[in-house]
Amino acid sequence: MARIRLLGYQPDADPTTRGVIVDCQGVVPSINGMEAAPTAVSTILAALAAEARGAKVIRKLDNTTRFFAGTSTKLYEAATTTWTDRSDGGGTYSALPTNARWSFAQFGNVTLAVQKNDLLQFSTTAAFADVSSTPQAVPKASIVETVGQFVFLCDTNEATYGDSPDRWWCSASGDYADWNPSTTTECTTGRLIGSPGPIKAAKRFGDQIVIYKAHSMHLGTYQGSPEVWRFDEVPGDIGAISQDAVTDIGTTGYPKHIFMGMDDFYIYDGSRPIPIGSGVIKHEVFNNISYDNVRLCISLHDAINSRIYFFYPTESTLTKCVVYNYLTKQWGRDDRAIECCAEFNSAAGLTYDGLGTYYSTYADLPNVDYDSAFLTASTAKPAVFNTSHVLQTLSGVAGSTYITTGDLGEEEVYTLITHVRPLFLTKPTSTTLTNFYRENMGDSLTTDTTNIYDDGKYDVFRSARWHRLKFNMVGNWEATNFNVFAKQEGVS
After folding, report:
1. What is the pLDDT of residues 205-236, one digit of tens each?
2. Is 0.85 topped by the overall pTM?
3. Could you give the C-alpha distances from 101 to 56, 75, 83, 86, 337, in angstroms and in order?
């Protein structure tokens, strides 16, 4: 055998394909290969008052940021160490529908928030308040998004048309508070009835918008008055599984969405959605997902590392996660129990008192010039709310992780493995290797000895037709491939 390059987590693939990882935990794809996933580190913020049901960092026109989180009946803004109640009048909202979350969007310096059981909320500097519009009342909605001069509301409920899960509204041009249909202001509404079901998601797509149902996609293009917006159904029966499972990784000029559908993961660049999980991870995820709770599915963008975390439920809560690197097109796995997730600007409100929470020693501070700013408003980290409602950034030193390779060998030949030498770009704090073997594919695996890492290798010494290697690591590591040193012992 020879050097074997790690090809990422591929539980659906033929296990005899060299380089596939059939099982792993706490392992994510890097630019060079695979690496340990960072652990979750609690921020200096106190726990949210109740389960986190939506969160978002927003950026104002002056490039400053605010970070909001919602519970079933409240909206909060992050201060230095506490959460400030930003609910309208300090009161409570109607409880969120089951498994639903708050939806947030930014319109200039105005932050907008919606949930289906209450009116559209807005905030500029302090607390939220109801957006009021007469004579046409502002629709209640599950989803809010902004595109150019327009605010979109989807899956709406208002006096004129009632509860309309397949309806969209756009505000008057340049006015988030005007919801009176008019060819002059370009406020209008419509339904997407070319395919069945409610609207699941809506996401800006450059200067367009994509509205998703479970099994269809509708690309909206601005036309001007009187039509205002034209929606063309994208060919195929592909849609999104939830509002929070669509991630925009593109730019205004080159928009691109990566999203979780009802039966696969997809990338969409304006032509057609391309599956990215088939033959790799599709069956593992969608054969085990709880379709009764798919509204919980949520994605988290780690833009610095070109990764997207997709969290999904196998029962009634979020406990599973697969991770996609859209530059290398490889997958990893990083299961953890969370309530929801969002990017978080850790520099916001950071004081000397709180510095030690993020950096234990001076040596841990970023390696920049003495007079340089090391945390700015643009320093965003992927973050999650754990099941204790505490916001945590995915930035800590890795704990215990492992990868298990596919089956190495041949059907008619016994192979004696003498040792295995991994190529670590970053060595873990400690590591061992356990060999598993069997004589025929389909047989149960037999567990061999666990071998220590010494002089850059693991000594194995086992003869069998098929071998499967499990690397156990503690601490940060990154690896590109591994070398298996073996010799054939004859045809059987």
Report:
1. 999 999 999 999 999 999 999 999 999 999 99
2. yes
3. 11, 11, 18, 16, 17
